[in-house]
Write a structure and sequence with these properties.
The complex is a heterodimer of chains A (476) and B (314). Chain A is of the alpha+beta class. Chain A has helices at residues 24-32, 35-52, 80-104, 109-112, 170-183, 185-190, 199-208, 233-243, 280-283, 299-304, 322-325, 328-336, 353-362, 387-399; strands spanning 71-78, 144-153, 156-163, 221-224, 246-248, 253-256, 259-264, 267-270, 273-276, 309-311, 348-349, 366-370, 379-381, 404-408, 414-419, 422-431, 433-437, 440-443, 448-452, 466-473. Chain A has a domain at 346-409: Dna Ligase, domain 1. Chain B is 77% helix and 0% strand. The radius of gyration of chain B is 19 Å and the shape is globular. Classes of the chains: A alpha+beta (476), B mainly alpha (314). The A-B interface holds A 50-53, 227-228, 233, 237, 240-241, 246-249, 251-252, 254, 262-267 and B 1-6, 93, 96-97, 99-100, 104, 107-108, 111-112, 115, 156, 258, 260, 310-311, 314.
């Protein structure tokens, strides 16, 4: 396994300087544009985002309660052929994830078979005993999934992370496209890009298809938000607005007559499907964290008796666990009977003695992550860390090896961003959004491209100074 | 719609209206102070604080009433719980929490108001820029109102927005009239003096009524006539009668949508009847101050019962 970063693959320009097929029409167009006009457009884009209030909040940052996620106007482009291959792999993985979750909360065949060790999820807080033996309406566990992909070569996509709990960022996918179409309408007349704009409609349809038996013919869907101080509040409001669903908070909800109901100006009204953007732990103070003010007391009882659909189902966070992730190739094979179409990033499980020894020896070249971490917090990027940071991390690693996994520092692909000095390559990832209902798996073409704005940086998380790009899948 | 959302909408518009009316009051004070000697100017600034009911909070921080101090206290001092910047922030926080119930145009207008005024009020306001700051507050509030009028569906949400606007406006007009008319006039002996004429001018200016009143009355300043205009003239958009016409229509629309009348409708009918039956003579016979204080507390009772009838709070 190679761990030294190779010269990375640029998605726009090949090593010999030739333009890659996906970008040919775009680069032709770009070369016709006046650079001064492009600079002005770039400033306009920022004003647009600020005026419409597309912001996110950063935890632990008092000065900037709401910040913009920087938007870069050079699109990230994927050909239709590349996308078809990718989406087959994504669909396979999502099917396996749902089957895995059903199994974990029922017969646990995969544990009996010995394919994954029992120790992995014994004592794992993301696995919820309250879900044992219960099948959610329609048999769906992860209604909305985000699969984070990275790329290292022309045909080399790998899964970096599965987001089966509450993937966020879809509002940026939609707003980025709107912004691009408003700024460069002529570009879209010239290059045919697969549309993403009907995502909210597809989401509403997919959620409604998962309604419980108690629901009426026209299921009532609501989005549950922790409120305006949550980092993703903008997205919660945006999706509710686009779906025509109510945006509710815990204080609006109460269990009345065996249903979860919302307090409207005309009295209480039952909700059939709750798209919740509140973590499991806060969902029901009677079942989980008793201190939670964000959830609904008694919702789990209603859920278990078929009175409401909760999307995503409680307990799906188990699949976000990075130690579980390392077994995804085995999981995919176990439930689909097929070889995984999308590989994982090679991963060392520090819980295993050999791997731990290897990781400790090579830590300066590796990326080490907490198994329950997210958002780019609590991780070490060996090559860019100081020897003091590395020494401190080694101690943490030795104290609790089972809390960590390690991965090679990949030569992530780059896509150019627009800078004052012209185009400059930056590392990117891609988060496609997947909807699951009894009617099937629906993948919106493209997804959210996150880009590390600092030269050479590999961290694309918005909380760590990353930006976003419009992501195009070409019609072909 | 959700009760909590109705509450947010109602208060978003109350705060915007209050911010705008506070700016008008400062504008009137500013103009008055410019046309007076230093002592009279300070007295005028004091009257602004008295009208806003903020003497206690102000006196804890300052011993005298200068234009710069009063303006900064009213507009941006965090020690003042009723500062205008805080109202704009509260309006925007309410809008954000009811984001799915307002149009993109309304949201962008209130978000922009928050950005523009946040910048303007970030530093102490100097006298030279006071006029343009106050004009910006009025302008931004007007833009939100225009976006609301021009882009919102005429449904429940709109009626809560309008009910909030007119309840707040009626309250503000009644307070300004009450304080200016009674508490500030040193004695009735001043009636007809030049100080007095100036005071009437401020009362009218505080409510942006000076042009309309002069136009209707060929420039004559008559205390009774002014009170009549501000309370009973249905043509003037800040008069109590006008506000209550609008409030009644919006509450009626809510009752029709809900097929149900609440406590607020009963209170509204009673308050409306008293206002309709009143003449300027009956008001002065009973006492203007008594009339206005009763009005203010009935107005607040209507607001409270709207919140209860429509389940604003759990």
């Amino acid at each position: 396994m190679s761990i030294k970063p190779e010269p990375n693959f640029d998605e726009m320009r090949q090593a010999d300087g030739a333009i890659c097929p996906a970008y040919r029409d775009y680069v032709t167009w770009l070369e016709e544009q006046d650079p001064a006009l492009m600079r002005r457009k770039s400033r306009e884009a920022e004003q647009f985002f600020r005026r419409t209030g597309i912001t996110f909040n950063v935890y632990g940052d008092d000065d900037a309660e709401e910040r913009l996620i920087p938007f870069d106007m050079v699109p990230r482009i994927i050909t239709g052929t590349e996308w078809r291959r990718l989406s087959r792999g994504i669909e396979q993985r999502v099917r396996a994830l749902n089957a895995f979750m059903h199994d974990l909360y029922h017969r646990q065949e995969i544990l009996r078979s010995g394919r994954i060790p029992l120790s992995l999820f014994k004592g794992n807080v993301a696995w919820l005993p309250q879900m044992v033996g219960f099948t959610p309406p329609g048999g769906v566990y992860t209604h909305i999934v985000g699969i984070d992909l990275v790329r290292t070569g022309p045909n080399e996509f790998m899964v970096l992370e599965d987001n089966a709990r509450t993937p966020s960022g879809v509002s940026y996918m939609l707003e980025n496209r709107e912004t691009m179409m408003a700024m460069f309408p002529e570009l879209f007349a010239r290059i045919h890009v697969q549309s993403v704009s009907d995502y909210p409609r597809r989401l509403a349809k997919s959620l409604a298809a998962c309604a419980p038996d108690a629901a009426s013919d026209k299921p009532v869907v609501a989005v549950l938000t922790p409120g305006i101080y949550n980092s993703a509040y903008y997205e919660h409001a945006f999706l509710a607005d686009q779906m025509g669903a109510e945006l509710v908070e815990g204080s609006d909800l109460r269990v009345v007559d065996g249903r979860v109901q919302m307090r409207t100006t005309a009295g209480f009204q039952p909700i059939d499907v709750l798209y919740r953007r509140v973590d499991d732990d806060f969902l029901d103070p009677l079942t989980f964290n008793p201190q939670s003010m964000l959830g609904v007391p008694g919702i789990m009882d209603v859920y278990r008796s078929g009175g409401i659909t909760i999307a995503n189902a409680p307990g799906t966070g188990i699949a976000d666990d990075k130690a579980i992730y390392s077994f995804m190739p085995e999981i995919v094979e176990f439930y689909t009977g097929e070889k995984p179409l999308l590989p994982n990033v090679p991963t060392w499980r520090c819980a295993e003695a050999d791997s731990l020894a290897y990781v400790l020896d090579n830590i300066a070249d590796l990326v080490v992550k907490e198994v329950h971490g997210s958002g780019g917090y609590g991780m070490l990027i060996g090559p860019t860390s100081s020897s003091r940071e590395i020494a401190r991390f080694r101690d943490k690693l030795k104290a609790r090896p089972d809390n960590y996994i390690a991965q090679p520092t990949l030569a992530l692909s780059t896509v150019p961003i627009f800078t004052k000095a012209g185009l400059a390559p930056r590392h990117v990832d891609l988060r496609p959004f997947v909807l699951v209902s009894p009617n099937g798996i629906d993948i919106t073409p493209g997804g959210l491209t996150r880009v590390a704005l600092k030269k050479g940086s590999l961290v694309v998380n918005s909380s760590q100074g990353g930006g976003t790009k419009d992501s195009w899948v070409l019609e072909d | 719609m959700l009760g909590r959302t109705a509450n947010s909408i109602f208060w978003m518009f109350r705060y915007l209206e209050r911010a705008e009316n506070t700016a008008r009051l400062l504008e009137a004070g500013f103009r008055m102070a410019l046309t007076r000697g230093a002592d009279a100017a300070n007295e005028e600034w004091r009257s602004v604080i008295v009208t806003l009911g903020e003497q206690t909070a102000y006196q804890e921080l300052h011993s005298e009433y200068s234009g710069a101090q009063v303006c900064n206290f009213v507009l941006r001092d965090r020690e003042n719980p009723q500062n205008v910047l805080g109202m704009i922030e509260a309006a925007r926080a309410n809008a954000r929490s009811a984001r799915t119930s307002i149009t993109a145009e309304v949201w962008e207008a209130v978000n922009e108001a928050w950005m523009v005024l946040g910048d303007l009020l970030d530093r102490p306001v100097r006298e030279a820029s006071l006029g343009s700051v106050l004009a910006s507050i009025r302008r931004e509030a007007t833009l939100v109102r225009g976006a609301t009028y021009g882009s919102m569906l005429r449904n429940e949400i709109y009626h809560f927005a309008r009910a909030g606007t007119f309840l707040e406006r009626a309250d503000n007009t009644a307070r300004i009239l009450d304080v200016k008319y009674y508490l500030l006039l040193p004695s009735l002996a001043y009636v007809g003096s030049s100080l007095d004429t100036g005071q009437w001018d401020t009362v009218l200016r505080s409510l942006s009524a000076e042009r309309a009143y002069r136009w209707l009355n060929a420039g004559r300043m008559d205390p009774r006539g002014i009170a009549e205009f501000l309370i009973l003239d249905r043509r003037f958009p800040r008069s109590l009668a006008f506000c209550y016409d609008a409030l009644r229509e919006n509450l009626k629309a809510l009752a029709e949508l809900h097929h149900n009348r609440g406590e607020c409708h009963t209170l509204m009918r009673e308050a409306d009847r008293r206002l309709c039956e009143a003449t300027i003579d009956s008001i002065f016979d009973k006492g203007l101050h008594e009339f206005l204080t009763a009005f203010i507390s009935e107005n607040e009772a209507i607001a409270t019962s709207i919140a209860t009838d429509y389940r604003f709070i759990a």
